[in-house]
Design goal:
Blueprint (H helix, E strand, L loop, with lengths): L5 H16 L3 H41 L2 H32 L1 H14 L8 H16 L8 H9 L12 H13 L5 H30 L8 H32 L17 H5 L4 H12 L9 H19 L3 H19 L7 H10 L1 H20 L2 H10 L4
Helix pairs in contact: 1-2, 2-3, 2-5, 2-6, 2-7, 3-4, 3-5, 8-9, 9-15, 11-12, 12-13, 13-15, 14-15, 15-16
Length: 397
């Protein structure tokens, strides 16, 4: 991953040092914008930068216009770009291939010539942040008029690769404050977060990856307790990997005096699925809530509509993580869990007694929540047929 390369470490150190030595706010902001473009060009290349720059220009222009239709069209174009670059092959196989296999085969050669070998760097984060920006401007928020500030919101290098997903009012305010006045207390806090991130990623997540890769072929032959230990390893590997990258991004930004949103808050102490998603990848879950779930109607149109909205929102949340059915299933799985968590107390005969038991013994609610979450990680981590086979083996000797 980019954050663990020597290039990134040297680059980040030089940027922080020069940024803090520069004497004037405008010079600092200009330097930081140039540094972010250099970072993006180095890791994305011209082919990766071009579509993102187009998306950025369209978003900036639509925001300045404050036109409702212009913002809606720009949002649609951003979503289309994300779907094209990241999901074309998946949609071709999963949708077109299902109904018209000959057409899918005929479309593959021309699309292979158009699509890059890999999606543009961070295209998922670009699309989500641009949609957030346009959505908020469309409903009355002030657009970012300064092109340099919008450029930095778009390509701020610490959050470019793995988030957190930024909200533009908070980011712009923090950027302006950092360029105007640097606080020396940000340095130890930033270094602490970077160190914590590297411990999580390099010492914990990478070693758990070795453990998982080594024992995965032996999973079916393991004793039942060992299978559960293996699943626990997967769950903590995912947490340490994701939260480690977030810590590094937050720490590097803090060295520059810029605050990024927190992304993880002890998710494995959650006592309900809803509580888990208020602690897990918080910038993403809030984005899903604000820009998919609530616009679909949220919980405002009855229980059935609420469950359907949750299933669709979290199915898309799963797909955001990658173009594969196992991610979709993982998202729908959590959407179903959220629907059950919101309605189990209404089940005739047992709802009240279950609610009373959870209130009396919070440990039961915690254990069931973590059981649900950790079993679900198999859907996230492995192809769907293999994940289902591994899940069945967790409940038989």
């Amino acid at each position: 991953m980019i954050f663990t390369t020597y290039w990134f470490l040297i680059f980040a150190a030089l940027v922080v040092l020069i940024f803090r030595l520069l004497p004037h706010p405008a010079v600092r902001m200009t330097f930081l914008a140039v540094a972010c473009l250099i970072f993006h060009a180095h890791f994305a290349g011209p082919a990766g930068m071009a579509p993102v720059m187009v998306m950025m220009a369209i978003t900036y222009g639509a925001g300045l216009s404050r036109s409702s239709w212009g913002c809606a069209l720009a949002m649609a174009l951003n979503v289309t770009a994300l779907a094209f670059y990241k999901y074309t092959a998946f949609l071709l196989a999963a949708v077109v291939g299902l109904w018209a296999p000959d057409l899918a085969v005929s479309l593959q050669p021309p699309l292979t010539g158009i699509l890059p070998a890999m999606p543009p760097l961070g295209v998922s984060f670009f699309a989500f942040e641009f949609v957030h920006y346009l959505f908020e401007v469309r409903r009355g928020g002030d657009p970012v008029r300064n092109p340099l500030k919008f450029l930095l919101f778009s390509v701020f290098f610490p959050s470019l690769v793995a988030g957190p997903i930024k909200r533009y009012p908070q980011f712009i305010a923090s950027l302006e404050e950092a360029c105007r006045r640097l606080d020396l207390t940000d340095i130890p806090e930033g270094l602490r977060r970077i160190g914590l991130g590297f411990v999580k990623k390099v010492l914990v997540a990478d070693n758990l990856t070795f453990f998982i890769d080594h024992y995965h072929p032996q999973y079916a032959e393991m004793e039942l307790a060992s299978r559960w230990l293996f699943v626990l390893g997967i769950g903590f590997r995912i947490l340490m990997d994701f939260s480690g990258y977030s810590d590094i991004a937050i720490g590097v930004a803090r060295l520059l005096g810029i605050r990024l949103p927190e992304n993880f808050n002890w998710p494995y102490v959650a006592r309900s699925i809803d509580d888990f998603w208020q602690r897990w990848h918080m910038s993403l879950s809030r984005w899903i809530r604000d820009y998919i779930y609530i616009p679909l109607g949220g919980s405002r149109h009855g229980q059935v509509r609420r469950v359907l909205n949750g299933l669709l929102a979290f199915g898309l949340c799963g797909l955001w993580h990658g173009p594969a059915w196992n991610f979709v299933i993982w998202g729908v799985y959590h959407g179903a869990g959220l629907g059950l968590a919101a309605s189990y107390h209404r089940i005739p005969g047992i709802g009240k007694s279950v609610t009373a038991a959870f209130n009396k013994e919070p440990l039961i609610a915690w254990a069931l929540t973590q059981l649900f979450v950790f079993v679900g990680w198999l859907w996230f981590f492995y192809p769907a047929p293999e994940a289902w086979g591994m899940i069945k083996l967790l409940f038989q000797p």
